[in-house]
Amino acid sequence: MSAFAFTHGGPQGPDDALLDFSVNTNPLGPNPALVRAWHDAPLADYPDPHYTRAREALAAWHGWHPDGVALGVGASELLHRLARLLVRPSDVVLSLGAPFGEFALAVAQQGGELRVLPRDEGGLRACLAQPAARVLYLSNPHNPTGHYLDLNRLRAFAGVVIADEAYLPFMAAPLAVSPWPGLVRVQSPSKAHGLLGMRLAYALAEPNLARELRTLQPAWAIPSPLAAALEALPKQGDFLARTLPTARVWAKQLAQDLGGEETGLHFFTVRVGDAAAVAAALRAQGIRIRDCASFGLPDRVRVAARTPADNRKLIEAWQTLQIPERATSRS
Amino acid sequence: MSAFAFTHGGPQGPDDALLDFSVNTNPLGPNPALVRAWHDAPLADYPDPHYTRAREALAAWHGWHPDGVALGVGASELLHRLARLLVRPSDVVLSLGAPFGEFALAVAQQGGELRVLPRDEGGLRACLAQPAARVLYLSNPHNPTGHYLDLNRLRAFAGVVIADEAYLPFMAAPLAVSPWPGLVRVQSPSKAHGLLGMRLAYALAEPNLARELRTLQPAWAIPSPLAAALEALPKQGDFLARTLPTARVWAKQLAQDLGGEETGLHFFTVRVGDAAAVAAALRAQGIRIRDCASFGLPDRVRVAARTPADNRKLIEAWQTLQIPERATSRS
Fold first, then answer.
1. Three-class SS of residue B161?
2. ipTM
3. Angstrom distance (rounded) from CA A84 to CA A104
4. A-chain residue closest to B30, CA distance
5. pLDDT tens, residue by residue, A41-94
6. Could you give all domains of chain B from N- to C-terminal order, each with its CATH number?
7. Smallest Cα distance from B121 to chain A, Å
8. Residue A88: partners with Cβ closer than 8 Å, 6 or more residues away
9. How big is chain A by its Cα radius of gyration, in Å?
């Protein structure tokens, strides 16, 4: 199982100083107001064991019931807990497109069988035609392609739909979702706010399911400052409005410069032929990008745009590579 | 299971302003150096997924191998993970004295059967005579009585011994422990440093077992500042040396004033007859103490001493209570 555990994009060691285009974070972060909420939180006392204020604030923001909010320490922690709650040995778990590696690992730890279906009309139809499957996972928008699916189209699925919306805040205009009892929306706003070290995460779910999720979490598993930052989150929408349009423009420009496929988000993929070789060659020049082999796309790399100055360094390094012409064609 | 979940001593809501003698924390905390380490930690980037520096620092401090260190978000999170790793349905799990409620809950969630044995020579012999039991738990020193058992006496136990050493830092002179392969020492220094909101925790265990414990933890489950504070911990021994002797003196005085049983720690128990009634009467006066019914001691309360000014308020309130004379006798 450790094969899963080591395919993430983040730094692999404490002294890693590569210029990092593999981490899908807001290049205009961190959000100073959330940093302040984190630093102002009391450290001496136990957190409220029910984390009432944070859950109420998030619920009011999303028009959801506070009982339907479960807090987590990063999306990976929430996804592992969801797998423990929902996946029994030999259960079939569907994924529209390759899942986040931690979810695949969590399903394997539960003894479930993961079936990855393509993110197209055929894959969607195949999901809806499997009434025996109890869980359907999708990252939405999808990592790494940016593909976005209207969740309302999954209402007919008989089991639980887990929508991993880590990259939803980066979208300019996501569609409205009318919640239904089988839908769980996993939110991990650390990326959008440029605060990956905080591990901000929460799930919006039907109250009974959310309650069971909370029961599976040990007492006081959320440090007080993490709960305080989650509580402050609803007041931070203007930070995203101020920064993300710029990030999208930078990403669009970089995608054009590298021959990548624009997504409308801050990251995109580029067809390069042998992604592992391209990632290794850039790494030798002090730059990290994400080889998409672990997403089932061995001919693509994923690039999360940074500031224009950093992006220029990537373009310069990129021009030294031998990327076959046909690799970047869209056909 | 919620019966377990609501018997903790911490505040039960966000607006609870009782004078709290139920929380077993250092009255001279918080430790400013750990607060600084927390606030200085980077928030923008992913933590190192292996938390190498924190594990190496803790290992060097304890004379342990870094592979034998597993970090947690509070002792409760580590104990739940240990139960998942070690307890299979119908397993017998022994506890010398009533366990921390979260461990009992974790054993129940795994389908294990918990057997609580007394913390005396008879209980110790009964543990060692049960070779079929795979796990033995004890808090050491014991919460709430302060009873301390030389762990070396448990070497002959056939399974895994989980020593929950949350209160060990408060002891003036603990015995040396020579590690053996079946021993897991769970450390939660948040209490000793007066930093309950941080959820500092780690386990020292045989490397293979610690590795499995780490595998059961989702990726990046430790926020960066929590790892930074754990890394800084070995340099903070002098804070304990500066503060805890004073805390012990205050506790000794308060125990004498209330007719309690001194423990050499900062907390103690008092026999009061009907502990629930005494706790309720004090609560009506704005003071919280810990009713020990959930520890199987319905005639005792646990008091964690605070500063002398706070302690005087407890003594004054205590004098208004009708506590039967025989209740506080030591016979």
1. strand
2. 0.92
3. 12
4. A44
5. 999 999 999 999 999 999 999 999 999 999 999 999 999 999 999 999 999 999
6. 2-28+238-321 (3.90.1150.10), 32-236 (3.40.640.10)
7. 32
8. A110, A111, A112
9. 20
